[in-house]
Amino acid sequence: MSYIHHNRLDFLEAKILDNQDKFENIWFLADGLYSMFGDTVPAEELIDLLQKYPKLIAYVDDSDGMSWTGNMGAGSFLSKVPYHERLFMAMSTNRTGGAIMIYPENESKNLVRNYGSSIVFSGPLSPSMIMSGIKATEIHKRPEFSIMQKKLSDLIYHFIKIAGELNIPLIRDDKTQVFFIGMAHEEPTIFVAKGLQKAEFFVDVAGYLSVPKNNLGIRITLTNYLSFTDVENFLYSLSELITILEKENKFSTPKVLKIFKNQNNSVVKKYL
Questions:
Q1: Fold observed for domain 9-140
Q2: How far apart are CA 114 and CA 253, in angstroms?
Q3: What is the DSSP track for 149-198?
């Protein structure tokens, strides 16, 4: 097993060229939507590589990309590209269980079902998880489901617009429901998280080891339970806290984004 730099499929192609004569198959494992920064795997590039190299097989976990986008919630990956014959996919109908597996053919499905360790040694789903999955599936098939998706999409774009006006350091801008506000270091991260909590905004603090050192920040997700006003109040509160840090010379948005760019090579360009 080996790794490539995040989302650098040109590195993947180099690995394929180095190893295609050594192995029967070459597997590539990725998330459809990465749940820390909210960025997505380059779907079109991956499909191109699958077309180009017959030994390449892809496994994409799009559990976090499901529901909010795509036809009947097909997800961030399949909303961009058609299904491929050498593509394995994972999705989910609830966060702690109820996985959906998509196989290209029955032989692979039966192999995993009969011999997969996670199935052989695991217990059955609880009735509540089963019912949750059934009801989630029914909701996805309703005519009004696309209206729910549009509502969330409008909220996402509104968040990005206001964040840009306030110069909030968003690390990615992939038009997904997950956002990461870069803080870089521990002190400003804790200060902002506590300040937001006092303002009754409960956020996820992303610290080392979940993210690299000096890549700390605040991670949030948007849902249809939030309104435009909720988004605005959150971002204005966040902006006020950042302004306090800036006045104390404890925070600089350009410097923070430069740190993230050097580490990840994937920062929103308009802020630099």
A1: Aspartate Aminotransferase; domain 2 (3.40.640)
A2: 53
A3: HHHHHHHHHHHHHHHHHTT--BS--SSSSEEEEEEESHHHHHHHHHHHHH
Between the alpha carbon of residue 19 and those of residues 1, 52, 81, 99, 237, the distances in Å are 12, 15, 26, 32, 51
Percent of the chain residues topping a pLDDT of 70: 95
* Vertex 82 angle, CA 87 and 53, to 5°: 50
pLDDT at 267 over 70: no
* DSSP annotation of 40: B
Residues 20, 55: contact at Cβ < 8 Å?
Answer: yes
The one-letter code for the residue type at 192 is V
How does the average pLDDT of the chain come out, rounded?
91
Structure confidence by residue, pLDDT tens digits, 120-136: 777 777 888 888 888 98
Domain ranges of the chain: 9-140, 145-271
Look at the alpha carbons of 68, 73, 78, 80 in this order and tell me if their dihedral is positive or negative: negative
**Dist. CA 181–CA 184, nearest whole Å:** 9
pTM over 0.90: no
CA distance readout (Å), 84 to 46, 50, 65, 87, 231 = 10, 8, 18, 5, 38
d(CA 97, CA 80): 26
Architecture, CATH, for domain 145-271: Alpha-Beta Complex (3.90)
Which H or E run includes 217? strand 216-221
H or E element that contains 205: strand 204-206
Confidence band, pLDDT 50/70/90 cuts, at residue 270: very low
